[in-house]
Amino acid sequence: MTGKTRALYLGGASALAIGAASIFIPGQAEAACEATPIFEGETVVSVDVTCDDTAPTITAPFDTSFDDIYLGGGPDTLNMSGGSIEAGVAGTATPPVDGFEENLNPSPNIDMLGGNDTVVISGGTIGTGGTTGTPIDVNLGAGDDRFEMSGGTLFGNVFGEVEGEAPGIDTFVISGGTVTGSLFGLGGGNIYDISGGLVQGSLFAGSQNDRVTISGTANIQVNTAVGPDSVGLEDGDDVFTMTGGTLGGSVSGNAGNDLLTISGGTIGNYVAGNEGDDQIEISGGSIADDVRGNEGVDQVTISGGTIGGDVEGETVRLYGGTIGGDITGISGNTLIINGSVVANPLTLRNGVLFSGTGGVATITDEDLAAGGTKTQNFTGFNTVSASNSTLGFGTGTQGIGLLSLTNASTLFVNGNANLAGNLNLTNSTINMIDGAADDVFTLGGLTLNSGTIGLDLNQQTSQADQLIASAFAANGVNTILVNLVGTPQFATTTDIPIIISTNGPVAGTFVIQGIPGTVGSLFIFQVIPGPTGGLLIRAIPANFGIAVAPNSAVNASTVETAIDALYGVNRDAIASDLGLANGVQRVQLTSTFGVFASGQFAHTEHDGFTISGNGLTAPGPDFDADDFSAAISLDFNAAKHFGFDDRYGLNLGLFGGYASTDVGMGSLQGFDFIGDADNKSGMFGGYALFRQGVNYGLVSASTFIGETDVTSGVLNTTGSYDTIGYAVTGSIGHIFALSDRMRFDLRGGMLGVSFTGDDYTDSGGNQFGKSRISFGAFKFEPGIYADYAMENGMVFSPYARADLQQRFAYKNTATIDNREIDFDDADFSVALSAGFNLKMSERSTLSSELRGKFSSDSSTVGGKLGLKISF
């Protein structure tokens, strides 16, 4: 808009419509004009402006610029939807209207003056900004005025009216647009509803009982010339509600008993009640700094949202939300923490401080310790009561007169903690378990009422977590849980003090045990009264054989794999040299030397050994094993070489190979993971096969040398040790011809085995002695074989075989801390095998076999697939 500046005073006008480019006073630069009011009855409804001959008479719309717009007494309305109102240089006064004096102010304003006036801005611009611009303030004046803004820009402030000058109740409704200054309610019990738009300054509510609502996308920043507040409620009993939007600064209640409710939005600084007995309720949103009641007897309730700083109030209720600072100012009224009121979790910082004077705290259904990962500090509290809740104390002194834990509550203690007062523990737990036996909890007094104490105990250092109490009493049945740390001592019994008190012997019943699923469960614990009071723990090694169960299992599996490989070599030699299985069984290097190979995969499921040691016998954990073996043999036909093959057969063989087993243990005694182990061995040996007609005898021997890697889930350690084993077999047999295609092999013999695992020290310092397996066995191995010629020239040779074994003198031992543990399983087993050889040509044979072995304790399924080609 353009034109020379004028000052226009409209006395008693009931309405002034300032639309898009619709402002009074003509735009000609030097036109002389006069304004004439148009009446309806006694009310001025519009104004005609008539100018001299230098410009035509102008009716709306008008194009102009103002210093001031004065709307006098009466219910005036300023409605702006576009255009601009700009301040110019003060000039000639506008002619007086209706007897009022001319008015030419040195600074531009829109003054509504008296009456219940309304200002509505939905577009356009009032004033100018920037360093060279001139802002225009809107003064609502006396009366119950209303300021609405949904668009446009006001370069300036909005003022109500001061108390003592008939301020009235002003209403501010802003849903859009921009106010570059601040909103000043001044006097009156004003109402603010800010749901959008931008106020670059602050909102100062007024000196009486105001109501302020911030929601939606409202954005109020800070008038830094006045202070840090985005919203200053000022005097009076004010009500502040925030459900959304953004405040760049703080919210201050100032004088009066204020109610501040915040459920959403973002506040860039603190929230303070200040003078008066204030109530602050926070269920959502984000506050960057503190929430303070400050002066007065204040109540702060937090059920959600995020607070970056401290919370201060005489009464504080914490139901949910996140608080980054401390909780302070608690008086004898109360601190209430309850995790069952709202669904939002309560999150406090680690090491949070609760402080007050004569404070009283009640904590219900809240995991303040976060499972033992967080601590709290209390100072200035007469009593703290916790029900179905957790607390955490670290190193330092807790200023609590009486701490009561009830209804399955848990107090975690880590470090050197002190409680100046007394602790009553009823159906609740003191948990000092953290993996190190170095915690000390010193109390003025301790009373156990069917309580539980969990602590760490280290046999090597003869230390345990301790409670030191000047007075100690125990009622009901109390439980002590022991977490054994460090290297356990399986060779000796240890006595270690856990509760130190000087008030004499303690009456009461104690149940003590190691924690299931830990190494402590391998001991029997007893509570021993201290010489002057207090209690000691006696640790007695018990059924600790489970600690070496992985060693025993992998040793047994290594032996079984090596024996199966040895018998595989034996069976191939017999089948080849006696012609039991048709096909090319070996590759002939010369007329007297041949080579053949064998190998197999197997999977074993074992129900577990019976463990005996330390006067106790118990079932051990089940385990499974994946086995592999492969061997290559050099066969020498000695009978042919020395020229007596027409009467006897004699074959001598040497073989070498590889065997591996991978063992995984099942669960037992609360241990989900007992351990696992694997062994890799190289093997070598030889055999001699003598035959006369359909009768034969075979002897063989094998040595297998390897290394075992073992992981103990019981001891939480790892280790490795070298192994060596020997196996010797002897068999005799007779072959019966059932038909021209079928033969029956009746075979039996004996087996002897010796195996040793070296001693070693595992990663936890546990000393393992030698482990051993030795036994003898009788074996009975009947089998049936057949050959079928096919039309395509191939020969199909199926077979089936049984293997019945009866062990004797079985010994399977492992040693830890010089204590030998025995492992035993079934001595009788049956194995069944079925397979075939398919002779595809003179030089190639395809072979396959499935094998199952069963006993009352185990089952094994194995198989092999091979292709043999001669050159």
Automatic annotation (TrEMBL):
Residues 588-871 form the Autotransporter domain. It comes from the Bacteria. Residues 1-31 form the signal peptide. PROSITE patterns: AUTOTRANSPORTER (PS51208). Gene3D superfamilies: 2.160.20.160, Autotransporter beta-domain. InterPro entries: Autotransporte_beta, Autotransporte_beta_dom_sf. Keywords: Signal. This is Autotransporter domain-containing protein. It comes from Neomesorhizobium albiziae.
